[in-house]
Amino acid sequence: MAEVKVIVTAKETGERWAERTGTHFVAQQADQTADLVLDPNEQYQTITGFGGAFTEAAAYTLSRISPEKRQEAINACFDQKDGLGYSIGRVHIHSCDFALGNYTYVQDGDTELATFDISHDHKWVLPMIKDAIKVRGEAITLLASPWSPPAWMKTNGEMNNGGQLKAEFAQTWARYYTKFIRAYEAQGLPIWAITVQNEPAAVQIWDSCIYSGEEERDFIKNHLGPVMHEEGLQDVKIFIWDHNRDLMVERASAVLCDPEAAKYVYGTGFHWYVSEDFAAVGKVHELFPDKHLLFTEGCQEGGVKLGAWFTGERYGRNMMGDLNNWCEGYLDWNLVLDETGGPNHVGNLCDAPIIADTITGELHYNSSYYYIGHFSKYIQQGAVRIGLTSNHSAVNATAFRNPDGTLAIVALNETEAEQSFSLSLGGEQLSQTIPANAIATLIIQA
């Protein structure tokens, strides 16, 4: 019989990644049907990894607490045994809202990019990434995203409040990405992928730039794709959209229905704000099955929600919904924020799984930290999603086969009552309970 380990995090019991023993499979009777039916022979997407964003806000916040607590926070995210085991990370190409202010890597008007210099990142961001790699003990897969071109390249003359890229600077802006990639490479930090633009359909009061689907298509086809090839960076992946699920089908279609643009595009990135229409994620896969899907940003808006449980459940529900619709990886937003939910240079304060109180020096671990861990700690890089049929009205689940042969099943109970469920695998069945407002991961030595 297969060996089973159960890990539970629950609101009322106080359990956090608590291991339960005594669960085992028994032979399934001929007339028995299970609530959850596993089929390891049915295979879907391969997992790239789980992670979060190395924002200037996160890195600066960690510089304001003790070296011991800073190390604890990095361990909590990247340690493969005792932490979240993060394997991927997102970086912003010059400033974003979670930076201390607007900044770029070149002097104004430098169309040759001769002054390109990432020394700004040496103060906080690069040391944090390098320390994270030390803790993980191996490379971290990096995704880079711009929030805005430099002000002088834009129609509105500023980095904030939307505006668009001026046509005469499209080629220069495309080369800017390659300069960034090369500069990070020189620091021993290869960039795995880029997105074209963070949230291209939103005029934000912070760093932002608007593209229509057709404009994004043409920028990739005529500038970014060719420039990446000319610079020998054709192996760096390009993700489009990098915005919410509600428009992702039409925006993916606008680019990927054009074969000349599509040949440069690896996949579609998306965020969770506005919509929990997980079927839209699956629809993009259905329309473009040769392209990839990556969740590139999500967080709880509106400042710190210390101790709240709904934030963890939001992560659990979204991660499960997207993974069950062909999503290949999950990037949380800020790895760490301070006690205000910042710093943010326009006051767009948010929550994070880890809050570092720069006044008391303490670290607070939110419910979201533990919920994320039920996926990131147990679903390994290279895991493949397998078939799981659910007949349970209150327990949602997803299942993976890890490279080491183990099966990882994550089950979510958002109701206020304990739920019992049965799970079958190859003629055997087990019974399990999951507490109210809880998440559980089952590891099966198959």
Short description:
This protein is an alpha/beta fold. It contains ten helices and 21 strands. Strand 19 (419-425) and strand 20 form a beta hairpin.
Mean pLDDT: 97
CATH architecture of the largest domain: Alpha-Beta Barrel
Instruction: Write down how many β-strands occur, each being a DSSP E stretch of 2 or more residues.
Output: 21
Q: How many angstroms separate the termini?
A: 9 Å
As a percent range, the share of strand residues is 25-35%
* Backbone structural class: alpha/beta
Sheet with the most strands, sense and barrel status: 10 strands, mixed
Assembly category: single chain
Q: Give Rg in angstroms.
A: 22 Å
Total domain units? 2
What is the fourth-level CATH superfamily of the largest domain? Glycosidases
Q: Name the helicity range.
A: 25-40%
Strands across the major sheet, in which order? 2-1-21-18-17-16-4-19-20-3
Q: Compute the number of helices.
A: 10
Low-confidence stretches: none
CATH topology of the largest domain: TIM Barrel
CATH class of the largest domain: Alpha Beta
Q: Give the overall shape.
A: globular
